[in-house]
Amino acid sequence: MGLSFTKSAEENGFLTTSVEEIIKWGQKNALWPMPLGISCCAIEMMAMGATRFDVARFGMEVMRMTPRQADVLLVAGTVTKKMAWVVRRIYDQMPDPKWVISMGVCASSGGMFRSYSVCQGIDKFLPVDAYVSGCPPRPESVIRALMSIQDRIDQKYRPAIANLGKSISQTPRQDYFDSKFAGVKGLYSLDENQEPREQTQK
Q1: Structural domain of 156
Q2: Could you give the number of structural domains in the chain?
Q3: Mean pLDDT of 135-158
Q4: Helices marked H in 31-122 — which ranges?
Q5: What is the pLDDT of residues 22-33, one digit of tens each?
Q6: Cis geometry, peptide bond prior to residue 137 (ω within 30 degrees of 0)
C-alpha cells in the first residue's frame, strides 16, 4: 500500500483519497485507551505500555485517565454488581466512536469469582468489541485485541461525516444495549439518588 502511494505521488505529483478514509486512518492509528484496572490484570496492562511490548507502535502510548478523552475502554479485572453502574457511567461519558475490550476471564465471564456479588461478564451491561482470555492475559494478547479493533475500524466502521448527518452507532450491538437499559431501575441504573435493592435471578 505504501509503495503504491509513493508511486502515485511520483508519477502524478499528488495523492487522491476520500475524507472517510482519512478519518478512519487517523482513528485507527491514534486510539486513546482508558485503563480500568480493577484487579490483577492491571499489572499486565502496565507491562503492555512499557518498552518491551511498546504499544506506542500503534499510537496508543498515552493512557487517558478521563473518559472524555478516550476511544477504548480497557476493563481489566473483576466487576462487582455494585461497581457495574460506575463502569457503565464511565462508558457513557466516552465520546463516540468508542470501543470496549474485556481483559481477562474475570471481566469476560466472572472467572473464579462465581458469586452473587460478581457480574458474570461485563457484556451483561456493556457492548464488548474484543475479549482477551487468560488469567492474567499476556500483553501480546491485549495488543492483538487492539489490532483487531484497528481492523474493525478499517473494514466496518463508517465515520459520522460519511453518514450525512444521520445518527448511526459504531457497533450493531450498541443499539441493543442502549434500548435494553433505557429507563431500567435497579442493578445497572445510573440514577445516583436511588437506593440499592436486592436483585433476583431470572
Answers
A1: 31-180
A2: 1
A3: 80
A4: 41-49, 81-93, 105-109
A5: 777 777 777 888
A6: no
